[in-house]
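Work Package 3 (structural annotation) set out to generate three-dimensional models for the target panel prioritized at the project kickoff. During this period the team completed the workflow that converts sequence records into discrete structure tokens, so that structures can be stored uniformly alongside our sequence database. As a representative example, we reproduce one entry of 493 residues exactly as it appears in the project archive.
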Amino acid sequence: METEKEKQRYFSRREFLRISGQTGLGAVMLSLGESVLAPGRAGAIDNRGGGLREFHLEAREIMWELAPGKRIKAMAYNGQVPGPEIRVREGDKVRVVLKNSLSEPTTIHWHGVDVPNPMDGVPGITQKPVQPGEIFIYEFNARPAGTRWYHTHFQEHKQLDLGLYAPLIIEPTQPDPFSFDREYSLLLDDWAAGSGRPVPSTHEGTAGARGGMGHMMGDMMGGDHTHAYDTMTINGKAHPATQPLKVRKGERVRLRFINASAEHTHVVQLAGHKLHVIYTDGNPLVQPVEVDAVPLAPSERCDAFFYAKNAGVWSLTCRQPGHSGAGEEVHVVYEGREGDRPVGLQTESREPTLWHNALGRGRDVLPRSMGGERSFDLILSGGMMGSDIWTINGKRYPDTDPLRLRKGDRVRVRLTNQSPEAHPMHLHGQSFKVLAINGSRLSTPIVKDTVDVEPHMGSVVVEFTAHNPGDWFFHCHKPMHMEGGMITLAKIV
């Protein structure tokens, strides 16, 4: 039964206007509604000063211009796509007042943040949906530090697809081991704008591209059917409308990549420069890894930097076939070289550069059990012959068997993908260590909250300590797969 405290988190529009008139909160909401996108990043809301950090968001329908002449009905926070970047410091108490001006219910999920379970934003599990005209107040302590993001968790195939997402940056309390001269947050997305030829789906996952017989089997089994996403954006805009990333020669520039796409994996590369990966899903690597390109499955994040030592105008694009032509391109422009012709890479490739290979995979196979942990095997299936049914251990949510855990349990989960499509599996409420991929142990475990499991018997082993009590979604982050049933719960008591 809903407690009185929980009831108080919901306000009608009339009640909110009365409260805001007494406290002055309404004026704050109006001022935030006027924020605009700064070049190369989302427009920021930032209430610095310590103590309680309060932010106001309004979800509403808008018309959004993806590129000149390409307007689309969208949903947005504070009238912009992506929504406002929220930036706080680790440990800050955060209060977010959400006003729902949509014509349908909504919620907000704080992706990668260790929020209390009632603040997780999953309708029917952690809260009631916020109805049209209602206000809901989210409160949590900002942790852990890193590149996080927030997005709707109500009918994601529609609301997330139409733009209800934004970056959430939690700065560390301790100095970052790296210093940067400037940084940009880059949110990558796929749109069904209905204005061009659909971009081929990317079912091979981030760990490798399929070719030859594997690709042919995917075609025959229905895994490579074409979807309607025809436009690719960076920060809500498709090239040539993307805002340039301005740099000076000699700078070290940080890029925070967030894949907000519903369907597509992006493999981003910067012509004329190497990328140095330092964080994945907001969590630090042991050491920087130099790569030519960074693969990101839906909902994954990656922080990388580059040395601005090659003056000119350079294209940052995606290696996946069709992505650049569909708008996924932004220019890095050196000061004083604004008139130069952009230089890009001449070829597209289905073969991503694998940064986790650079970390090294051990030749030994990970034992099924190290002793002392709770072990689970989750078999991911579905999608045969174009079906929209997706299962875990042969069952669709809500009939899937939950992971029943106690606080403090050490948990090991083996994910095996028997389907023809990749599955970026996301755990709410806590992060995990990736121990092994496709049967081979990683020499250095990677801390993540989302891991992409390759199709056709790909496997991943993850481990975590159950530290955050509650009922937590564990699901594929492709909305059509999630809504087709690929969800279970980690129930921690």
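The radius of gyration is 22 Å.
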